[in-house]
Amino acid sequence: MLKDDLGRLQSDLMAAISGAGDMAALEVVRVRALGKKGEVTGLMKTLGNLGPDERKTAGQALNTLKDALAAAIEARKASLAEADLEARLATERVDVSLPARPDEIGRIHPISQTIEEMVAIFGEMGFTVAEGPDIEDDFHNFTALNIPPDHPARQEHDTFYLPEDAAGSRPVLRTHTSPVQIRTMQAVKPPIRIIVPGRTFRADSDATHSPMFHQVEGLVIDKTTHMGHLKGTLIEFCRAYFDIDDLPVRFRTSYFPFTEPSAELDIGCSRAGGKLTIGAGGDWLEILGCGMVHPRVLENCGIDPDVYQGFAFGMGIERAAMLKYGIPDLRTFYDSDLRWLRHYGFLPFELPNLVRGL
Ligand code: DAH
Q1: Ligand 1 pocket residue status of 311, Cβ below 6 Å
Q2: Which domains does the chain have, with CATH numbers?
Q3: I want to staple 177 with a disulfide (CB 3.0 to 4.6 A). Which of 76, 172, 215, 312 is the partner?
Q4: What is the pLDDT of residues 205-216, one digit of tens each?
């Protein structure tokens, strides 16, 4: 084995390595040189035929060659991978600075927008958002809320019942967001300050009722919470939501099984000329139900009514959106009509914010 032969073999293989245009070609060269039947491997096998001195020099020379080839193959592999990545980055390039096409921007649905606005207002007051399941059991939707089995409120709720479960009871589609009051009071210790926006269901359908609609519930529980807090919170909410500083507000006595005393909140409006306008106008419009949480409801959740008390409220989100944005028909909310959405929807980058205005 001549030194010259090795030198030639080395320069041949090195040229083949640097000439390999992709990973597959490089692999062919590697097998040709260092594979089981490769040229260098073949030479290694001939070492046994040599005398001891010769074998030593030739062995060293072959090992040096083998290492040099292996290093060159690794280096070529790395540069091919890098070139590959560069090529992909070049073809998959996205120009993030391109302007958006305004006529193709999606719109935020008025329901989502209204929820965001309510979350912004109550969030500023220190409320957090809680959620619960759409499918409820009788206990959370009714019984724990002090609505016993024979209570007329059960009929008024036009409940959708689901088939009996294994335990023999019938789950319901929640008829209001109030069961999340129960779930929250069972799960966390007071003080509690939550709002609960979410879907609700009643078997009722006409221009002002939909079998699926949305409510937002509110619940505050603490040791010294009183009716003054209820009034202050809700008056502040109405004025912020409708963005009318002197919006007239009145509390009218009402009845709910889960609150005592209970009230409904009316806001001022005008119906002059058959047109409804929110604001000081001599007329009134009901907007939400509220009250001090009934001691029995607290007890049902394991909260001592001699230590804790609080208030709750519930309001319809569609109705609040219709009043604020002049949307005349409830059913259009769920038609998925793009023209309607373009007209009544909101731009996605204009998130409601109290400082900038809602
Ligand atoms: N759950 C009531 C409904 O669906 C609304 C409501 C009224 C909720 C008074 C409350 C409340 O939390 O205090 O009609």
Answers
A1: no
A2: 3-91 (1.20.58), 110-344 (3.30.930.10)
A3: 215
A4: 887 889 999 999
